[in-house]
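Escalation from tier 1.

The customer reports that the assembly of two entities below gives different structure tokens on two consecutive runs. Tier 1 could not reproduce it. I'm attaching the input and our single run for tier 2 to review.
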Amino acid sequence: MKIYVTGSATTAFGELWNASPRGLARQAVFGALADAGIEIADVQALFVGNMLSGMLGGQEHLGAFFAEELGLTAPAFKVEGACASGGLALHNAVNSVMSGQYDTVVVLGIEKMTDHKPEDVATALMGAGSEEERSGGATFPGLYAMLARIHMREFGTTEEELAAVAVKNHYHASLNPNAQFHNTLSVEQVMKSSRIADPLKLLDCSPISDGAAAVVITSKKQKKAARRVEIAASAVATDSLGLAQRKTLTGLSATQQAAARAYNLSGMTANDINVAEVHDCFTIAEVLAMEDLGFFPKGKAAAAIAAGQTTVGKGGRIVVNPSGGLKGCGHPVGATGVKQIVELVDQLCGVAGKRQVEGAAVGLAHNVGGSGATSVIHILKK
Amino acid sequence: MKIYVTGSATTAFGELWNASPRGLARQAVFGALADAGIEIADVQALFVGNMLSGMLGGQEHLGAFFAEELGLTAPAFKVEGACASGGLALHNAVNSVMSGQYDTVVVLGIEKMTDHKPEDVATALMGAGSEEERSGGATFPGLYAMLARIHMREFGTTEEELAAVAVKNHYHASLNPNAQFHNTLSVEQVMKSSRIADPLKLLDCSPISDGAAAVVITSKKQKKAARRVEIAASAVATDSLGLAQRKTLTGLSATQQAAARAYNLSGMTANDINVAEVHDCFTIAEVLAMEDLGFFPKGKAAAAIAAGQTTVGKGGRIVVNPSGGLKGCGHPVGATGVKQIVELVDQLCGVAGKRQVEGAAVGLAHNVGGSGATSVIHILKK
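Tier 1 run:
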């Protein structure tokens, strides 16, 4: 059975103080339904990807919560896997359509973070980490800083090369009307920004964001759909929550495993991918992703990114994070994995405007939970 | 494709102050694996049903959390739908096996509630309700008390009849070694217990509990499995989170819808069911379930329960909650929906000991989230 995305939409990402979760969900879902040319009554199940609503807002039961808001009495589920919640919601949605239980479902990724104090958000986000990391006072910038240090030591990766990831992603975000940031950056600006967790600086880190994204998934031909993209693979792998339990820290094993499975399921290799949306929660994370996904040999990605090999319009090996990524487009955690799909659909259908990747035919989305305990990969093709 | 439960296990339910979530998960999952005659390495995905770990313990990312504890690097997901989290995890597990993505998966339902102050637990549980109910200071005993008042007014249901539900379920629990309570109750004892939310008294309410339950789900014949039960239907429906938005309050529309779908999927009717585990978070909830599931006409269930029509060994219409239900066996919220399946498997395989239902061939599990915003129904047969 072939599974398709027939509708997709995202809200603007950013500090949306005047928007409610209900309003964001409506905008994303009804946008995706309009795109697919279907009505809410055609939706047979709703999958919600969200991490923080319980811890920050005291609201759980989000499947039913958003189903009510959308006017659905169909089955509704919240799927949670930290920052990979959106990708995991999509994975379960794909499986549910493949199972024959449902033939048309909606996946909604959503997070509302900026209504809360940043320190509360940082504490809540540590719910994605191990008990030792949480009780020891670790933060995600600190954990990724350790991964950066190891990469620098093992492969000679430089802080300037890491900065180049942020520079590229802000450039891409400047071309994306829905991105949180539209300002471009220089390597010098990144290097001069405050040190958060050495060697990571403020501008190596993705922001705290609000936003929602939604996609319609179906096995049917939907005649009114403006466009249709096939999901050629949906794959997930896990690893230990804590860094201390990992066999290696020069890459994320869960990403390597999920990538192997996704390439196997789709019959493709890394060479077939033209465009990728990857999980750059910190600049080092994009470097690790490039290598773990097989786009560049281990230790070689940072220099390639700095040389423009993954920048739109540069004719390089592959364009990465044309949306601006988590760094430039923003990172409302539960929404991110779904927004990646929305961006890839736009790219594969040639409607990505100024950030359009020439000849994009196959796209890959890579969504990570925590410091790599969960990795979700989807491969999409025209 | 036929889907089977080939292994099942539950921990004791209760105030397990010396047990950790990790330990409970290990006990339930390795018990279920031993029952199925398989190893952890045979497990292709893990579905975790849990509601409160984020709000009460600051720990999310539970799929990866428990995968690590169990020694799995397979895909792992947390599915949340308030007190229906266990049932929703099972539903998604069933779909994932039907999809062909995975052929053998484990569903773990788990909750650790008694380490926290009861008032904090009560507040966290309101995360299952609507914003108006939460901000207005409603509690779940209060919401179900309203449902009880309406049922009493419409159908003449009495407080003594409601008490009979607790009496029956404590009697069943007294026969279940894993139940939280082993003391039997009289109607008089229930009637004399403290009024919590009039007309509901303390002994009309399910307790705060710890516990875990796990099942192995597969489409394969597992030769070493001691026994095998088919999942003939898995169905979910939703309704508004808040009572104020419902069209009727004499029953739960989500249960009626999910039941219609489950009967349709299985080709069965209410008359085919010999044994049921239903969501008696409060005594009135079991009365509503009996009617919404079609076991008794609307308004007639309470008297039938009081007359022993659903008590084990009484030769009545159907045996309901032989485990002791949420009231007697306990209600660790994320575990409940999975424990119901464990009990039904025992019943259908004739190994339920003193609480064995004679000739049990078809069982139904009914798991509710909140005050009925989510309802999940599974039908199992030998």
